[in-house]
Amino acid sequence: MQNLDKIELLKELTPQERASIAAKCVWRTYGANEQILERSTDSRDMYFVVTGSVNIVNYGVSGREVTYATVGEGQYFGELSAIDGRARSANVVASSRCLLASLSPELFRDLLMRNPSIMMSVLQRLARIIRINDDRILDLSTLGAVQRVCQELLRMAEPDPLTAGSWLIYPMPTQSVIASRVSTTRETVARVLGQLGHEGMVLKKGKTLYLKDKGAIEDYIKTLAMTPSQSNR
User: Fold this and answer.
1) Facing residues of 35 across strands?
2) If pLDDT is split at 50, 70 and 90, which confidence band does 231 have?
């Protein structure tokens, strides 16, 4: 169904206003692993993820993939080029079959100017991205691989709506995606998750990872900091 009712950014608009925007979008379905945007290209549209999910990635000189984020159903991407008119800063690849609705930069900027609350939501999201990237840069400079994996889990975790004091990650990214975010190997991520599970700090059920003791994971990171030889394995 080609509607934008599940897009979080547009939740304060009326159904009629969302329908009007939907009618101005270009709709397209992408298959898993299909490239949607390429870094440095001149396209300027922004995209709403109606169903499915996409990965925001870049590639090093050696060809190594670095995943910045996964954008899921109800979210959006491509706003940087739509706002500043410059070339794409990253590649976007479908991580599953997805339906996207693209909006021209002119219409997106008009949407922002006409709706201050939507503009503020976009600004807050950009600020959040900057803060996350600042943290990751610091982690790369000061933490070992095991610590970086643990920190990334803490960053992704959200409060469990059903259990007070519990945290969860849903949907849990693949081990390869987590590895590329923190510049380590999939094997290291698997080993860390196995260790945390063995210690009772996390529990994997389906597509959800439950952080049963968030404080214990934070303490584990601090403990590794006092044993550098272990934190850098």
Assistant:
1) 93
2) very low
Domain span at residue 207 reads 139-226
Q: Are 59 and 9 within 8 A, CB to CB? A: no
Chain-centre distance of CA 58, in angstroms? 14
- The residues pairing with 71 across neighbouring beta strands, listed in sequence order, are 54
State the CATH number of the domain containing residue 110: 2.60.120.10
Distance CA 90, CA 38 (A): 7
Q: Is residue 65 located within the same domain as residue 165? A: no
pTM: 0.84
**How do residues 143-156 score in pLDDT, each as one tens digit?**
999 999 999 999 99
- Classify residue 220: in a domain, yes or no: yes
| Whole-number Cα distances in Å, 52 to 15, 17, 96, 226 | 22, 23, 6, 42
Interaxial angle between packed helices 145-156 and 116-142, expressed in degrees from 0 to 180 and rounded to the nearest 10: 160
Residue 92: which region, alpha, beta or left (left: phi > 0; alpha: psi -120 to 50)?
Answer: beta
Give the strands of the sheet with 26-30, arranged side by side: 26-30, 98-103, 46-51, 76-77
Residue with the two structure tokens 């290209």: 41
d(C-alpha 216, C-alpha 200), whole Å: 9
